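Crash report, auto-generated. Payload:
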Amino acid sequence: MEAYINILPRLLPGAVITVQVLLASAALAFVVAFVAGLGRVSKYSIVRKITAVYVELFRGTSLLVQLFWIYFALPAFGIQFSPFLAGVVALGLNYGAYASEVVRGAILAVPSGQTEASIALNMSNWQRMRLIILPQAFRIMLPGFGNISIELLKGTSLVSLITLTDLTYKGLIIQNTNLSYTMPVFVMLLVVYFIIALPLIILAKKLEKNASRGVAKA
Amino acid sequence: MGMTEKQLKSSNKPDKEMPLVQYENVTKKFGDVEVLKGLDLEIKQGEKVALIGPSGSGKTTIIRMLMTLEKPSGGVISLNGEPLWHKKIGDKLVPADEKHLRKLRSDIGMVFQHFNLFPHMTILRNVTEAPIHVLGLSKEEANERAVDMLNKVGLGDKLDAYPEQLSGGQKQRVAIARAVVMHPKVMLFDEVTSALDPELVGEVLQVIRDLAKETDMAMILVTHEMDFARDIADRVVFLHNGQIEEEGHPEDIFETPESERLQGFLSRFLNT
Ligand SMILES: Nc1ncnc2c1ncn2[C@@H]1O[C@H](COP(=O)(O)OP(=O)(O)OP(=O)(O)O)[C@@H](O)[C@H]1O
Ligand SMILES: [Mg+2]
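Recovered output after restart:
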């Protein structure tokens, strides 16, 4: 028991980094998701194609490889990121690609009658998107976003591999320096990750319940 | 001098009598199926025209093409003499762009079978949203116009309700108000009572009747309510298989239908 209590304060700085990476990459993923999601339903086929390539590229290759690319390979092209930034960019682009599918699916899930009513009221394409479609699509997206943010939290542990001292990294350091702590370290890692995830899990459940309110039925 | 004035006036005359809406040899294909076969139809300013006909005869398609929801495969639809789906460049007609469509669309309004209200907005906002953002009215002006119209359709006490809290008949009255506050020159109604419980049909038809009397908006009404069509329409058009089979004054259409198909169609209605 003493071991568990000893470990906790030493893990906490790592937990702070993990939460920072989580929040920053979630914010980036959110923006990316909307840009790419709207791109996927653009009326211009060139925009649709470019965003589709991006989405498939980032969904189709491993996050770890993307992370290494951004941290280790991009400097060869003169682009140098700090470990934190590299982690946030890789996570944001990767989970943003997944989340853009949520955005796209939600936009397409708004019944066509809403589009037709907007056209009949002579709204511009952008007004229709902004005033009618997105507010409804947003409610449909939220549970998906909740679930992806939980996935994103789990994904953040990979940044330990590019020397970022996150929760996983801290745990591995402690375990390496004191092998008798192996069990307590991994138990505490699970516990702390779960505690960070808990608000996200509760939020996702709540959003799921409310998702269909204020959305037109087909 | 007097002469020239007169001449000027008379040269304006054709313009005055120009139909508000004109379909010229309009065709529509869905895939290989031709659902409209060279439609010619004119609607005058302020005229109320009922479109009747069996299911699949093309009634909805006709008004959806005017609302720019469906693109004609051939022919020309004009509004105030200006082609809707085409732009004149010199003498040539080229496909219309979004800007052109938006300009002409401002004279057209539509009420749908399934209301299509905006579920995330209050009733008041459903009616003010387009006047504010599309017409550029101030919030106060838009509210005034909307409240006025909602009072007229008997929903002045529902301003802050959401669509899901209303009955079907109430929803459809909101949808009518939402379209009317845009002040279109022609209003399209696509079987606006057929999704309603029978006891709610009357209130919606009454609103449209009042509207028809009070405004000089032209109306094209697709309907299966024959009494209503007879009551409200200046002209009834009977469609069959994508073509106009017979048209005329409601009295003539309903009392002395000429074509066998119209006779058959009407007798099925009277028997049910
Ligand atoms: N989007 C579409 N794709 C394929 N076929 C269509 C489409 N819309 C309409 N049609 C076909 O076109 C024909 C005319 O349809 P339309 O909806 O205009 O008829 P209608 O007179 O309004 O019929 P109803 O009284 O049932 O509403 C029908 O055969 C219909 O199946
Ligand atoms: Mg129809």
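Post-recovery validation: The mean pLDDT of chain A is 93.
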